[in-house]
Write a structure and sequence with these properties.
Helix 8 runs parallel beside helix 10 and helix 12 runs parallel beside helix 14. The mean pLDDT is about 95. It is built from 16 helices and no strands. It is elongated, with a radius of gyration of 24 Å. It is mainly alpha-helical and about 270 residues long.
């Protein structure tokens, strides 16, 4: 990730000034993942009243802030750089990553759309944009992007997102194909089992849903979500004792949503 985000080199033909030496030192520290030390030097250079700081210093400090988990600060700094260099696609990627960490899907999508415009045909950006469209419920756009990205390279995450897009468009059969392909590509990718099972559960196809939950529970016996969803499906199949065991186990593992089901239908069963 550093190689992607840290793209602004530092070069000087003449004898480097003290300021250039400090910046080069900070660049080295960043490459060594000494982000706090690097950020301190960049901040010193930015605060230097003798000359106006360039946007690249703000960008580099933003990279450091990102890796230190200071996402709001990173957004502020990279935005200053974008104002100065609006066609630097890496800056939009960095800000998009920050927005992802901040849970801001709308601004994340805006930045990845812009990065995609600047890097036409980049399959990773197309995939990322498609997954965001799906997350926002824009399933047709998401499907188109994910199908395009799939033509370059396929993986379990892509297939799962594509399955969600098809489900959002009401095409359950194609969604199941995608979830199954996701499992083929990575048998340990838990999201594929969960989304396939929950989709079938919502379609009242509980026996099929349980099949996916059981497959996941073979891999992860303590997966609280799989136990919770399996418990709900067993409830609809009138298999109350099995359902209550699953719901109790899910609750014990931290799935708090199981409590209401336990209160409603299970405590009498186990008296």
């Amino acid at each position: 990730m550093i190689a992607v985000l840290f793209f602004i080199g530092h070069a000087s033909i003449a004898q480097p000034s003290k300021r250039e030496e400090l910046e080069a030192k900070a660049d080295t520290l960043m490459q060594q993942e000494e982000f706090e030390k690097a950020a301190n030097i960049y901040s010193k250079l930015i605060a230097d009243p003798s000359q106006k700081p360039s946007g690249k210093l703000y960008y580099k400090r933003a990279v450091c802030s990102y890796y230190q988990g200071e996402f709001d600060d990173a957004v502020k700094d990279v935005s200053i750089f974008i104002d100065e260099s609006p066609r630097a696609h890496q800056a939009y990627i960095l800000r998009g990553l920050c927005y992802r960490q901040l849970g801001d899907v709308d601004n994340q999508l805006k930045d990845i759309e812009k990065a995609s415009e600047l890097q036409v045909g980049n399959p990773q950006l197309i995939k990322w944009r498609g997954s965001l469209y799906v997350e926002k419920g824009e399933y047709a756009k998401g499907k188109d992007d994910l199908l395009l990205a799939r033509a370059f390279e396929d993986d379990a995450e892509l297939e799962t997102n594509l399955g969600m897009a098809y489900n959002g468009l009401g095409n359950i059969s194609e969604a199941i194909k995608c979830f199954n392909q996701s499992i083929v590509l990575d048998v340990n990718y838990a999201a594929a089992y969960l989304y396939a099972g929950s989709m079938l559960m919502e379609a009242d196809r509980h026996t099929e849903a349980i099949t996916y939950f059981d497959l996941l529970l073979r891999l992860e016996p303590d997966n609280a979500n799989a136990l919770f969803y399996k418990g709900i499906s067993l409830t609809d199949l009138k298999r109350e004792k099995e359902a209550c065991r699953c719901l109790q186990r899910a609750f014990d593992l931290g799935q708090d949503d199981a409590l209401d089901y336990l209160k409603e239908m299970c405590y009498d069963v186990f008296k």
